[in-house]
Amino acid sequence: MLIKDRLFIDFKNAMKTKESLKKNTIQSVRTAVLQEEKDNKVTLSDDQVIGVIASQVKKRKAALPDFIKSGREDLISELKTEIEILEGYLPVQFTEEELNQLIADVIGEVGATSMKDMGKVMQVMTEKANGRADNTLVSQIVRKLLA
Q1: Contact criterion met (CB below 8 Å) for 38 and 85
Q2: Are 135 and 126 in contact (CB under 8 A)?
Q3: Handedness of CA 85, 80, 139, 144 (dihedral sign)
Q4: Is 17 helix (H, G, I), strand (E, B) or coil?
Q5: Which of 41, 51, 78, 142 is most buried (most C-beta within 10 Å)?
Q6: CA 25 from chain center: how many Å?
Q7: pTM of structure
Q8: pLDDT tens digits for 66-118?
Q9: What residue ranges define each of the domains in the chain, with the CATH number in brackets?
Q10: Which pLDDT band, with edges at 50, 70 and 90, does 146 fall under?
Q11: Are 129 and 138 in contact (CB under 8 A)?
């Protein structure tokens, strides 16, 4: 089943069961997917939809420290729940060991030897890790291996 179809079915179920947070979270992702399709005049593949979902998760995780600073416990809880809901649509994340191995393979594949080649490595890694690894973590590991 396509992820867009699964999102639609889960959206309908959330409406039926009156789970407003889940419904609103899924609706925001469906809106982001639709906007991406309209902007680029394409139909997104599952991998591209995963990229949109990963982007939505990243935005919510970036907002979390601000809510923590302001002491908004109600919003912190809501945001964490939204992140959990969205992560349910993402593929299983790479372990750090798997990520280290994959990055080492990519470094060998592109022939990277120094930090100057980090852009090449990150470009290939972004494609290979689509939604399965946080780019910040990937960047840290690449820096460590190229140093």
Answers
A1: no
A2: yes
A3: negative
A4: coil
A5: 142
A6: 14
A7: 0.78
A8: 988 988 888 899 999 999 999 999 888 888 889 989 999 988 888 888 888 88
A9: 3-87 (1.10.1510.10), 96-146 (1.10.10.410)
A10: confident
A11: yes
